[in-house]
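Input chain follows. Return structure tokens only.
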Amino acid sequence: MVLGIFRRVIFAASIFTVGLFSYMSNSVQAFETSARQTVVIDLQTGATLFDKDANAAMYPASMTKMMTAYLLFERLKNGGLTLEDTFPVSEKAWRKGGSKMFVKVGDRVQIEDLIRGIVVQSGNDATIVVAEGVAGSESAFAELMTRKASELGMTDTTFRNASGWPDPNHVTTARDLAILAISTIRNFPVFYKYYGEKSFSYAEIKQGNRNSLLYKGVGADGLKTGYTEASGYGLAGSVVRNGRRLVLVANGFTSVKARSSESERIFEWAYRAWGNYKLFSKDEKIIDAEVWLGTAETVPVLIQNDLLISMPRKARKKMKVTVKLEEPLKAPIEAGAKIATLVVAAPNFDTIEVPLVAGTAMKRLGPVGRLNEVVQFLVWGNKN
């Protein structure tokens, strides 16, 4: 008996069943944008839909404040702080320039007001109040920020302050900020809502959220804008349509107007050009594989996790799903053992390979049974 590699075509393009499976894809369609660095990620599948210098070093400006808020959210979630707790305002915080919440030196400010002062008003002063309240100093807080970035997989990020104030060593990448945005959305659904608020008043001063997408009715509910002369205008944004969430980080725009219009255009393109396609459910049987010298003729081949993929709509029309395996399989077989590979392929799309496993255990025939199988094969040419 000679074992061989076989591919069985399961289906092409038009047949789908329910599923969900997280993966990363590097298949990115061509698209032009004036941003210097950009990345678009589908939150549900983890697929990268667009990438322009997403791993290039850049200055995050006020998008830094997402990490300041993240550390605050962590302490609220684990009970270390409450929204009603207060932090004192130091002279350093009060004197800080740039965008401000307008806290007053000597006052104590509630955590919930500080959150809104950071994510809605982009107050540099509010970030220092939080940094000093949590870690004692802004420099110590920046070390916590960098450490947390590393834990989240933001491998190219170093923070030097809590606000994004210009510093040559305060750097990140568009992809790292996307990781932070996605982690915020996933880990803190209760607190993420603050990013969608359009305005906040403090000290009798009302300020609007600088994220213009919130006002356009496009499904945006966050996250943070940024600007310094060195970084240009940037946005970490998220949009939800029909239950599908995309996350965008774009930086290096030359104006507020360009940031607004171009970010909206990128989201529109991503939703139009890419779709999510459900293929298989967890533990679904894909095929039955033939078995040699086993107590049964076949064993079910299962997928272990739900499978949902993001794919360019044009590529989907020529998608093929096949199973790669050596058949017949040799008994004995353990339940859960990897015995095949599911392959999803399409033109101009990075092939996805997913392991498949045996759905049941298969014992090997005893000596008499094996002899009978061999005789039948020699006489009749059949496997069993």
